[in-house]
């Protein structure tokens, strides 16, 4: 089952539509109250990072379900109005490891998606606070032609280190509920896929 595709804009109505579509998918697949609440919580976490991403990109959202296995898909395409000033602003956010905007799993996932939209390879040297996070999560996923980032791959590295990254994972709603989060590039589009099976 695949839900309707919702065109995403940086508006409250557009972001609310993501939550409504998630509730419709839960009902259609017959999820009980607790799993439906968890799926909605994952959608809420996703919605929380979208406003900044939608300030310089166009987006689409849909859900794919196979039985009780769900994938929340967000596809982002950079807007033509992406300026050098905006690129520098985004790079500055992650250039300092003490910057609160680069803390937390969802903020780092948002930044990884931002840098993929901006051309990560060109930007990598300018964002040392993101390099470890990004590289530790790099993996190959069959449906992305180039390398992608996976929360599970990052989790394996973070678990071994038991440092700040592990603390962030333990506190993260998404890390504790989702089976995985994958961020990858398809042509000029960046996809964020949140996976959860009940």
- Please give the count of helices: 9
- Rough outline: globular
Q: Please give the alpha-carbon distance between the first and last residues.
A: 16 Å
- The parts where pLDDT drops under 50 for at least 5 residues are 93-101, 123-129
Largest sheet: 7 strands, antiparallel
Strand portion, in percent? 15-25%
Overall average residue pLDDT: 80
Helix/strand order, N-terminal first:
EHHEEHHHHEEHHHEE
Which helices and strands, and how do they pair?
Layout: E1 6-8, H1 12-28, H2 33-54, E2 57-66, E3 69-78, H3 84-94, H4 105-118, H5 120-123, H6 128-136, E4 138-139, E5 148-150, H7 151-161, H8 164-171, H9 173-177, E6 180-186, E7 189-197
Antiparallel strand pairs: 1-2, 2-3, 3-7, 4-5, 5-6, 6-7
Helix pairs in contact: 1-2, 2-4, 3-4, 6-7, 7-8
Structure description:
- The chain is an alpha+beta fold and 198 residues long.
- 51% of the residues lie in helices and 22% in strands.
- β2 and β3 form a beta hairpin.
- α3 runs antiparallel to α4.
- About 8% of the residues have low confidence.
């Amino acid at each position: 089952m695949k839900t309707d595709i919702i065109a995403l804009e940086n508006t409250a109505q557009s972001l609310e539509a993501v939550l409504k579509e998630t509730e419709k998918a839960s009902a259609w697949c017959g999820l009980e109250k607790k799993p439906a609440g968890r799926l909605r919580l994952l959608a809420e976490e996703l919605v929380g990072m979208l406003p900044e991403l939608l300030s310089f990109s166009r987006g689409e959202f849909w859900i794919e379900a196979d039985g009780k296995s769900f994938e929340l898909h967000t596809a982002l395409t950079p807007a033509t109005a992406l300026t050098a000033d905006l690129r520098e602003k985004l790079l500055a956010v992650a250039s300092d490891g003490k910057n609160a905007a680069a803390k937390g799993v969802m903020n780092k996932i948002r930044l990884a998606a931002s840098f993929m939209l901006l051309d990560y390879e060109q930007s990598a040297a300018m964002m040392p606070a993101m390099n470890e996070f990004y590289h530790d999560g790099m993996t190959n996923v069959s449906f992305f032609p180039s390398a992608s980032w996976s929360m599970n791959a990052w989790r394996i590295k973070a678990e071994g280190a038991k440092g700040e990254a592990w603390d962030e994972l333990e506190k993260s709603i998404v890390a504790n509920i989702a089976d995985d989060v994958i961020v990858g590039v398809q042509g000029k589009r960046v996809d964020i896929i949140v996976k959860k099976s009940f």
